[in-house]
Amino acid sequence: MSFKAPKGLYVPLVTPFNKDESINYENYKIIIDYVIDGGMDGVLVGGTTGEYHMMTVEERKELIKKGCEIVAGRVPVVAGTGMNTAKDTITMTNYAADCGASYALVLPPYYHQTTEEGIYDFFKEIGENSKIGIIVYHTPGGTNVEMSPKLCKRLAELKGIVSIKETIDETHTSQTYMLTKDIPDFCVMEANEPLLLPSYAIGIDAAFSIIFNLLPKEMRKLYDLVFNDNDILAAKALNEKLAPIFALMEAEPYPGPVKAGLDIIGLPGGIVRKPLVQPTDKMRTAMKEELRKLGYAVK
Domain extents for the chain? Predict the structure, then answer.
């Protein structure tokens, strides 16, 4: 079975929590409706921005199921399904497929690290035994696992692997893109806010971004200026306008800053789960000022 590569803008959704840290699905629907109405092409449920690493396996499964139900086929759903072993990842991925997800996002093995050949075998087993396409999540800052562009190319050629989400520097991303751009049914997805426009400029037409939760319409416009209007000067001007808020996204442990931004414009961002810390008053003040500059009525 072959799978189609994703394209466009995918939101790594925040997970709204109640004060007791239980998941608020009514608020989850508000966020999902907001980003879809804002022009996003797909959503990620249960990713890092969604605080999956502070959830039990049963909570993760419930979030995937409820997320797919709320989306109701309006856009493709990516589910965060990574586990410590290939076998457990396959089980979680196929559960997500049965819930209606179109793709699964999977980290390489980390903490007790393996070799590049071990990483290759891990994704080969997952790709060959999953019901949906696999997006490899390459985020060395979080895992301390950096995969060479050559390994990324080998992964791109595997059955079932449809994309790599790049959260790394522009050199690695551009090299990986050039090595894989002609592989059928595969794409590179940019995931660093400051690198979105440079990545679009070289032809990368798929992306994840924390800020898509907060500013879906502006980020849709940035993408369309490049790919629909071929107006790089207008895209550059918009990118410069948005750059200060890009910088705030990870100025404190995320997803605290983006949740603060959602609260400020009247959407249910809410708290983060412990041991993450809540955004500071300094962050909220800076976020409020930048959102006001963009024309938002702030609270």
Answer: 8-232
Q: Choose the catalytic residue: 34, 103, 137, 177.
A: 137
Q: Each residue of 20-39: pLDDT tens digit?
A: 999 999 999 999 999 999 99
Per-residue model confidence as pLDDT tens digits over 98-152: 999 999 999 999 989 999 999 999 999 999 999 999 999 999 999 999 999 999 9
223 flagged as catalytic: no
CB-CB contact of 35 with 10 (8 Å): no
**Annotated catalytic residue, options 61, 165, 259, 288:** 165
List of residues 6+ apart from 221 with CB closer than 8 A: 238
Instruction: Please say if 137 is a catalytic residue.
Output: yes
Among residues 251, 220, 250, which one has the least CA distance to residue 238? 220
Which band of pLDDT confidence, cut at 50, 70 and 90, is reported for residue 1? low
CB of 148 within 8 A of CB of 175?
A: no
Considering the segment(s) 8-232 as one domain, its CATH architecture is Alpha-Beta Barrel (3.20)
- Nearest C-alpha neighbor of 291 from the set 246, 224, 254: 246
**Alpha carbon distance 201, 209 (integer Å):** 17
